[in-house]
């Protein structure tokens, strides 16, 4: 049984896809999709030996060795040309790390049509990378599970270049249009955090910094969205 978070990532994997799940740990996601016959091939990439061995073990236990291939490699280096990967999933790490992984592998991205990304934090930096690298968001989800809030970004190759406004980059264009209760709760919490950070910077009487200005700009954006939501 997959977590709601991973099941939502999996729901956006096209039927018959050849996927690379980067940072796969136990390979739960590709194993689940292979068992459901939703994918025709998978690479489960891991940079750390322990999780790589977990993946190897899980795949053997489920007799999926023909379909799911564990690889010990850093980021997209797990992908080989003969894999003909068309879909990449990266879940359960920070946005900056997801962005770094995507940046390091332009050759491995060539045949890729869809990216499904689940940053634990820092989704904005991932959206920025997508729009700067020829991808466009086609859907987004936000969900709460076990006391955490998760965002899932689904992007395809852009037919025409896309740019996102500062609000769309921060909140996500689809999530912003929807303004679900989970979304509102997340940004109420983020607003309180940003306000506290500004207060601390002001109390410390440091010279106004770029950091302070960024926090203030974020507060203005969040207040705008929360007011709109009533
Ligand atoms: N994707 C699974 C999920 O969402 O449940 C596992 C998430 S786990 C918290 C993050 C995994 O990413 C860890 O097992 C870690 O070793 C792996 N990882 C971190 N940086 C990586 C990189 N550059 N390349 C491959 N795997 C990486």
Automatic annotation (TrEMBL):
Recorded coiled-coil stretches: none
Keywords: Methyltransferase, Transferase
UniProt record, GO biological process: methylation
Gene Ontology MF annotations: tRNA (adenine(22)-N1)-methyltransferase activity
Any Pfam family hit: TrmK
UniProt-listed PANTHER family: TRNA (ADENINE(22)-N(1))-METHYLTRANSFERASE (PTHR38451:SF1)
Protein name stated in the entry: tRNA (Adenine(22)-N(1))-methyltransferase TrmK [Lactobacillus pentosus]
Organism in which the protein naturally occurs: Lactiplantibacillus mudanjiangensis
């Amino acid at each position: 049984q997959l977590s709601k978070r991973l099941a939502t990532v999996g729901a956006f994997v096209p039927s018959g896809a050849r996927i690379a799940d980067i940072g796969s740990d136990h390979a739960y996601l590709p194993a689940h999709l292979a068992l459901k016959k939703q994918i025709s091939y998978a690479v489960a990439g891991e940079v750390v030996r322990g999780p790589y061995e977990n993946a190897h073990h899980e795949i053997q236990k489920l007799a999926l060795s023909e379909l799911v291939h564990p690889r010990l490699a850093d980021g997209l280096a797990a992908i080989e040309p003969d894999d003909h990967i068309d879909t990449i999933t990266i879940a359960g790490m920070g946005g900056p790390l997801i962005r770094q992984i995507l940046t390091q592998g332009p050759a491995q991205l060539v045949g890729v049509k869809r990216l499904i990304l689940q940053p634990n934090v820092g989704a904005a930096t991932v959206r920025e990378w997508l729009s700067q690298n020829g991808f466009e968001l086609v859907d987004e989800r936000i969900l709460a599970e076990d006391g955490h809030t998760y965002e899932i970004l689904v992007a395809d190759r852009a037919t025409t270049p896309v740019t996102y406004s500062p609000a769309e980059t921060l909140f996500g264009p689809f999530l912003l249009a929807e303004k679900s209760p989970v979304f509102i709760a997340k940004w109420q919490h983020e607003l309180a955090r940003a306000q506290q950070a500004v207060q601390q910077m002001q109390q410390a009487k440091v010279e106004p910094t770029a950091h302070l200005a960024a926090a203030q700009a974020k507060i203005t954006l969040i207040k705008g969205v929360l007011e709109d939501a009533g």
